[in-house]
Write a structure and sequence with these properties.
It comes from Pseudoduganella violacea. By secondary structure, this protein is mostly helical. Helices cover about 80% and strands about 0% of the residues. It has two domains: about 5-50, Arc Repressor Mutant, subunit A; about 60-200, Tetracycline Repressor, domain 2, CATH 1.10.357.10. The protein has helices at about 5-25, 30-40, 45-50, 55-65, 70, 80-95, 100-115, 115-130, 130-145, 150-165, 170-175, 180-200. It is elongated, with a radius of gyration of 19 Å.
Length: about 200
């Protein structure tokens, strides 16, 4: 194993340990010593990668952005039935929302944001930027005449909000289990059909 790969693995272990500790004890009650012990590395190694807890938290937010990358890769395709494209888009969104790692990272970020409203605003702003993939899809469908006119960001939030109401907030805030495959599909189908019944042309 190369030194670079070992360094990357240690960094990943530190981030995973921080997520676990922040989730269990909260940001303020978690020490860099505890993170080092949980990660199985020295405290010096932790500080070499992250000079402060705030930088570790910023890295956790970056993990949220990375998790949503597949949604950015989905683009609108003229000539392909819109319903089929929306179903695939929402299927990818559902996979993200039901991913345990993503949910763990989201719990940590949201808990810290509640205690620090300014950080919450920064987090929401950055998450909004990452949802540009869906917003861009909506905008392209509008330009192709397949959706009604309107603010693409607003319309995007309405569409994705249907999934989050069933497959994100109950799991993050109330500890409910992930939806089973049948329930996931029912939520996706209903959300897309309701969306098209209002915004479709």
């Amino acid at each position: 194993m190369t030194t670079e790969r070992l360094t990357d693995r240690k960094r990943a272990a530190i981030v995973e340990a921080a997520i676990a500790e922040f989730r269990q004890h909260g940001f303020d009650a978690t020490s860099m010593d505890k993170i080092a012990a949980t990660a199985g590395v020295s405290k010096r190694t932790v500080y070499n990668h992250f000079p402060a807890k705030e930088e570790l938290f910023a890295e956790i937010l970056q993990e949220l952005w990375k998790c949503s990358a597949p949604l950015d890769a989905l683009v609108y395709c003229p000539g392909v039935p819109l319903r089929a494209q929306l179903l695939e888009l929402m299927r990818q969104k559902m996979l993200l929302l039901q991913d345990e790692y993503f949910l763990d990272v989201a719990r940590v970020a949201i808990a810290e944001a509640i205690h620090r409203p300014q950080r919450a605003r920064e987090m929401v702003d950055r998450l909004a930027d990452k949802e540009e993939g869906v917003t861009g899809f909506i905008r392209a469908a509008q330009q192709d005449g397949q959706l009604k006119e309107g603010d693409p960001a607003f319309i995007s939030h309405l569409l994705q909000g249907q999934l989050k109401a069933f497959a994100f907030w109950p799991q993050v805030a109330m500890g409910q289990p992930p939806l089973d495959a049948e329930r996931q599909q029912a939520v996706i189908d209903t959300a897309v059909d309701m969306f098209l019944s209002y915004f479709g042309r």
